[in-house]
Each structure stands twice: as structure tokens, then as C-alpha cells.
Amino acid sequence: MLWDAAGIRGLAARLDESNFVILLRRMLEHEPSPERVCTIVAVLWRIWKARNWVVFELKQVHFAMLRQQLTFQIQEWLQGGVLVRVDPVSSCQDVVGEEYVESGLTCSFDGAVCGQSHAAFGIVIRDASRAVVLARGGHLDGAFDLSLVELIALHEAIYWCVIQG
Description:
By secondary structure, the protein is an alpha+beta fold. Helix content is 46%, strand content 23%. The strands form two sheets. Strands 3-4-5-6 form a four-stranded antiparallel sheet, with helices on both faces. Strands 1-2 form a two-stranded antiparallel ribbon.
């Protein structure tokens, strides 16, 4: 249901990168409402977190669990919520965001290290009304420590906020 609302109906378990990018562009091309953008970004953020559980904690991820977490996360993002919480389903600690009190922005960020020479990060910035104002990912080549990748993600988020004034 939420997956359908986000425009990810019938998404195959294996979707190559180019098709995934095309799918995202189609979902965002007609200036969707802030609630729809929030839903789409929440779906992608939850997929990212589930991927981390599989890769780093060797946990199994089930669709029903993802849907329940997604419902909780969308409500939290649209209504506001705590900065750090323990997910009621997985019992994993999940950093939901860092508050930027002056600007009213909330930033969720995460990083991942893959093998010896690749890393990636994700950033989601929402305004005071919880509308998504930036969703960005980055790829880094080189040997990185996970905490450094997450610091780079936080730096990118702060840098974006500074540029926006």
C-alpha cells in the first residue's frame, strides 16, 4: 500500500542501477507534493537501512517488517519526532537526525563502506514542516573508516545548509 503510494508498485527484487534511476526520475518529474516526496525518500531511506542490517549485522529482512518500519518512519517524518530511537521491530539503534535549531532543518545521514576501496553516504534534509528539501547520495573511492564516511555525509549536509543561507 505505502509502496504503491510511493510509486514503487511491483518493484522487482533485482533492479539494475540504470532502471532504478529512470524509475526515480519518473516518480519525481511532475513536481509531486511534499508528502509524496517524503514518502518516496522514506522508502529509499528504509531500503538503505535494511541493506545495512543485511550487510553489517547479517540479519534477515522481511517485507512485512520493512512496511511496518516505513509506516512508523513516514509518520515520524511528517509529524516530527525524536532524534535517536530504538526501532521497535528490529531493536536496532537508528540515528534519525540531527536538529539544526536555527534553520529548523532536520538532517538524517548515514554512510557505508564496501570492501577495501569503496564507500557511500546518504543525506536527507527536511524543513520545519517535515517536507524533504534535499535527498542526496555520494560515492567515495579510497580506503575509508565508517565513522569518517558518516562525518563526510554530515559535512555535505552542513555545507548544503550554509550555501542555502
